[in-house]
TrEMBL record:
Residues 37-51 have a biased composition (Low complexity). Residues 1-51 are annotated as: Disordered. Signal peptide: none annotated. It comes from the Bacteria. Pfam families: TPR_20. It comes from Micrococcus lylae. This is Tetratricopeptide repeat protein. Gene3D superfamilies: Glutaredoxin, Tetratricopeptide repeat domain.
Length: 329
């Protein structure tokens, strides 16, 4: 990955010895990859529908929002612009990277941080001054650029971000996290965002999982076939469930209570958020196979909800559905 004015290691080695952002991580953040699996160049139906309804760029990300982005980087790579308002290079970097991120339809998310208002974030990222662009992959920062890039170099860089992310188990895809950007190149032909979608996106951008869940639920009440809302609701519920989890305590409870459906579902949530998708699925399939009683249906319903987060076209979902069918019948 080419970084102006800086020599960088290649491949997954970039993440070893990176800056420690644990002080920014929200409680319950799990390291590792994310639940999604759409490969670069492909798009799920939900993402295709959502692409014209919003943006994956959070224009004003304060430290609280950045905490949520660190957590989200376990699911998809997150681009962070350390922004200097009024600086021409900073403004150009914002336009350039924001359009590139929105062009990926949910395989990247971006947040713009005003480092003049929150200068402590420069130190957190190991930077002397802005502007600068970094990527967060599984909670770890990867420097990208501090000057505007030619179009072909930017395209190559986006591909390399996703390559590094895949090497570290991060290859998810998420619905829009913010309303469509006014005047954005990628949104020029966008259709109006449904009010409930916009409400959910704004709640996600603010890290308000409860409000996001409520908005997606209302959207599905209005249109049960809304695939973007289905995926958005499942993802928001997962983030809500895991936001305040004590990972060590949850895993200990799961080990000590193999017959407790709630304990096993909680560990599966952490596994999924941490990128251990097959482990999450297998845990619940095994529970279903061994528990033919009243706990079977809650476990099955929880597993189906996790399938929705990952996406029905993911081969891991398809393989797990076959195992689930065998466990049930």
């Amino acid at each position: 990955m080419s970084i102006p004015h800086a020599e960088q290691p290649s491949g997954a080695d970039r993440l070893r010895g990176a800056v420690d952002l644990s002080s920014l991580a929200a409680p319950g953040t799990a390291p590792g990859g994310g639940p999604g699996a759409s490969a670069p160049g492909t798009s799920s139906p939900a993402a295709a529908d959502a692409a014209s309804e919003g943006s994956w760029v959070i224009e004003q990300a304060d430290q609280q929002v950045l905490q949520q982005l660190v957590q989200l980087s376990a699911q998809v790579p997150v681009v962070v612009l350390l922004h200097v308002p009024g600086d021409e290079t900073s403004e150009q970097l914002h336009t350039q990277f924001a359009d590139a991120v929105d062009g990926q339809a949910g395989r990247l998310v971006m947040g713009r941080v005003d480092v003049t208002a929150e200068p402590q974030l420069l130190q957190a990222f190991g930077m002397q001054a802005g502007p600068a662009v970094l990527a967060l992959v599984a909670g770890q920062p990867v420097p990208l650029a501090n000057q505007v890039l030619p179009a072909d170099a930017l395209e190559k860089l986006v591909g390399e971000i996703q390559q590094v992310a895949r090497q570290n188990g991060v290859s998810g895809q998420v619905p829009p996290v913010a309303p469509a950007r006014a005047g954005a190149g990628q949104q020029a032909s966008a259709t109006p965002v449904p009010p409930l979608h916009r409400q959910a996106q704004e709640a996600l951008a603010a890290g308000d999982w409860e409000a996001a869940v409520g908005a997606w639920e209302k959207a599905l009440n209005d249109n049960p076939a809304d695939t973007a809302a289905q995926q958005g609701l499942a993802s928001a519920k997962l983030m809500r469930r895991t936001a305040d989890m004590d990972a060590a305590a949850v895993r200990q409870a799961g080990a000590e209570n193999p017959d407790d459906v709630a304990a096993q579902a909680a560990v599966a949530d952490l596994d999924l958020l941490g990128g251990h998708v097959e482990d999450a699925f297998q845990r619940l399939v095994r529970f279903i196979a061994l528990h033919p009683g009243e706990d079977r249906e809650p476990a099955r319903a929880h597993l189906v909800d996790l399938y929705t987060v990952v996406g029905s076209d993911d081969p891991r979902v398809q393989a797990s559905r076959r195992k689930l069918a065998s466990a049930l019948f």
